[in-house]
Amino acid sequence: MSVAAFLAGDLVRGCVYSAAPRNVYWEMTVACELACKHCRASAIPRRDPLELSFEEGCSLIRDVKEMGSMLILTGGDPMLRPDLFELIAYARSIGVPVSITPSATPSLTRDAVRRFKELGVAALGISLDGPAAELHDSFRGVRGTFARSLEILAWAREFRLPVQVNTTVTLSTLPHLGDLYRLLSERAVPPVRRWSLFLLVPVGRGVELGLPSAEQVEDLWAWVYEIAREAPFHVGTVEAPHYRRYWIQRRLAEGATVAELERGARAAGLGIRDGNGVVFVSHRGEVYPAGFLPYPVGNVRERPLSEIYRDSQALVALRDMNRLKGKCGSFPYRWVCGGSRARAFAMTGDPFGPDPLCAYEPASPPLSSARDARTPGALRSGLAEW
C-alpha cells in the first residue's frame, strides 16, 4: 500500500467516529475552589442550581453505556458534587468505564482517592503546569496547590490508582516542560501512566494567556517525539492533532513501512478531534463538540446524547474533513489530523478554518530527523537536552 492510499483508504474510514464517541466528557459542575489562569469554564466558587440532577446524570450515564463510550467526569471540580460517589457507583454498576479530573484542593482527600479505587475508577487526572510551586501555584491561583498535587500522586501510588498528569502548554509553561518531564520521570512513576500536553485554546480565562508560535509548537513536537521513545509513561497531546501529522512524517523519514504506520495508528489516536470521537456535556446539559469548542449542538434534557452525537448536522459537518478551508483543506493528512477545530474557531471565528498553531505547509519538504530531533528552542536555555 502506498502512503497516499494509507492517508485516503481504509485508515480514513477508521478515523471517522460517526456512531459513537470514544470519550464523553461531563462537566458535572462549574464550582471550583481554584482560580486557574487558563480555565475553560471560567469556574466560580458556588454551584449552579441549574446543574443536571442526579436522575438526569443517571440518564446520561445510561446513554453513555448504550454508546459503549468512556465517561470522563470533569468540571469545575467534580468533588463539589455531593452525589459524586453515588453517580460513579451507578456508572460502574452498569459497566460504564469512568475516569475523573478533580481539582487539587482539600476536597480531594486520601479517603476520596481510596474510594475512587474501590469503585473501579479507571484513572485519576491531576494537573501539573510546572516543576515547582512558584510556577504551578501562580498558574492555578492558589498557594499550596503544587504540594497538594504531589500528595495526591502519593495517595494514588498507595492505592495503585493510575494517573494521567495534564499540563497546559502556554508561553509561560513551555520553557519548563523539560524540568517537569524530569520530575515526573523521577518522582511520580508509578502511578503516572500518561502525560498529556494540552496545547492552549484561548477560551474562558485562557484568552489572557500567551500562545506559543506555530514554529515553537513544531519544535515542541520534535522534543515530544524524542522523549516519547524513552519515557516511562505514554506522552500524548490534546487539542493538538497536528502532532499526528508530525509523527507520521517522522516515521516515514525513518523508513517506517505503511504496515508499521497502520499498527501504530490507533494508539496514536488518528482522527480523534472535536466532535469526532469526543463530545462534551456541560453542567446544564448543553452538548458541545468539545469543552474548548463552546458551540451548542443540542441538550441532553431534550434529546439523548447518542441521538445528538449521531444526527447533529453540525457534528456531521465537523466529521467531514473535506469541508476544511485554507491549507487544512488541501492537506493530505487532513483525515488523520484535521487540526484543532476549537482553536480555529477561537482564533478565527471559523471552525473549518486552519489551525493557527500548525506550521505545516502543503508544499513543505519531508521532515529530516536531523532538523527535528533538536530540543525545542524555548526549552534549550538552562535545561537538559533529551
Explain what you see:
- By secondary structure, this protein is α/β, with parallel strands linked by helices.
- The protein has 17 helices and 11 strands.
- Strands 1, 2, 3, 4, 5, 6, 7, 8, 9, 10 and 11 form an 11-stranded mixed β-sheet that branches.
- Helix 5 links the parallel strand 3 (98-100) and strand 4.
- Helix 5 packs across helix 7 (145-159).
- The longest helix has 15 residues, at 145-159.
- It is globular and about 55 Å long.
- The two termini are 34 Å apart.
- Mean pLDDT is 87; it is low at 368-386.
Briefly summarize what is shown.
With 386 residues, the chain is of the alpha/beta class. It has helices at 3-8, 10-14, 54-67, 84-93, 110-119, 133-140, 145-159, 177-187, 214-228, 242-253, 258-265, 305-311, 313-318, 326-329, 341-348, 369-372, 377-380; strands at 23-27, 70-74, 98-100, 123-127, 163-169, 192-199, 234-238, 273-274, 277-281, 286-288, 298-299. Strands 1, 2, 3, 4, 5, 6, 7, 8, 9, 10 and 11 form an eleven-stranded mixed β-sheet that branches.
Poorly predicted runs: 368-386
Shape: globular
Assembly context of the chains: single chain
Number of strands: 11
Helix and strand pattern: HHEHEHEHEHHEHEHEHHEEEEHHHHHH
What is the percent of helical residues? 25-40%
Distance between the termini: 34 Å
The chain-level mean pLDDT equals 87
Largest sheet: 11 strands, mixed
The radius of gyration is 20 Å
Structural class: alpha/beta
Q: Proportion of β residues? A: 5-15%
Number of helices: 17
